[in-house]
């Protein structure tokens, strides 16, 4: 029996091939976004050696329009990295040093009596900026911590019955020391839940330590932030944030996120599981990690990479397991390994 070429079969094969090519082609132009973020990394890299994971998570939070809590011992470049990131973007920057005697009005502002018109006028506090660096956030008591609840969640404050909206972009980056406990206060769970990420910063390795010493020896700058250029405008950043929202997430990946969150609530090693806000945070952060990789679609790897920073401060390890030395990160790893990855 002879075989003959069928032009219909060839045409159908060509159509299927074109469909496959369209499927893997980027439907959203991520070139400019990725190039801009590489410039930001390059500027920060003029000063910071190593800490690539912290920088990448800060950029993901930037794209997600989410707040960040950075935890690490003194001297691991928490504060300087946040300051450098703010300097690479053409936005307002404000630093607040938290202390035990800090009052809510020192952050939000206060009403001042104007003698000229015999009226009270609201004088805005340092929270009215785009990038807010809060140094040692756990140094202030609950009364001061509560001043951040509304502004972090709703990007506004209410003072004397009047609503004052924050200018976009608005990002809070807070630092804290996990070792020192004297003169510190535990952050309320409601406040921790308002941070998109909690980033744990460790010590550099030997090669990085040598590079840090060498950079300091060769540097002629009086201040570390000298020579850092602004590479992104506020308008560009807002456009990038809107672009990230358009990144595609398949239905099975949304189900994967839900399974991770539900598992934290049912896990026997956890006293407190993650809230629905964590689901939304994981979705948003996964899109940001996809954008950092230059993709317009989320993969399971993006979700797994975001899970630790999104969940570690939203779950509480049971006292028995904590005494055994089991950490939140270890439990999150076990949860991720126990859930089938969608294909």
Structure summarized in a few sentences:
The chain is built from 15 helices and 13 strands.
Percent helix range: 40-55%
Residues in β-strands, percent: 15-25%
Shape: globular
Number of strands: 13
Q: What is the number of helical segments per DSSP (H or I, 4+ residues)?
A: 15
Whole-number mean pLDDT: 87
The computed structural class is alpha/beta
- Low-pLDDT stretches are 1-5, 13-24
Order of helices and strands: HHHEHEEHEEEHHEEEHEHEHHEHHEHH
Q: Largest sheet, described in full?
A: 5 strands, parallel
Give structural notes.
This protein is of the alpha/beta class. It has 15 helices and 13 strands. The strands form five sheets. Strands 3-6-9-1-10 form a five-stranded parallel sheet. Strands 2-11 form a two-stranded parallel sheet. The longest helix has 18 residues, at 7-24. It is globular, with a radius of gyration of 24 Å. The protein starts with 6 loop residues before the first helix and ends in a 5-residue tail after the last helix.
What are the defining features of this structure?
343 residues; alpha/beta; two-stranded parallel ribbon; 16% strand; disordered N terminus
How would you summarize the topology of this molecule?
Elements: H1 7-24, H2 31-44, H3 52-64, E1 67-71, H4 78-87, E2 89-90, E3 93-97, H5 104-108, E4 109-114, E5 119-124, E6 131-135, H6 142-145, H7 147-154, E7 156-159, E8 162-165, E9 171-176, H8 189-192, E10 195-200, H9 206-218, E11 232-233, H10 234-245, H11 251-266, E12 270-272, H12 276-292, H13 300-311, E13 316-317, H14 319-323, H15 328-338
Parallel strand pairs: 1-9, 1-10, 2-11, 3-6, 6-9
Antiparallel strand pairs: 4-5, 7-8, 12-13
Helix pairs in contact: 3-12, 11-12, 12-13, 13-15
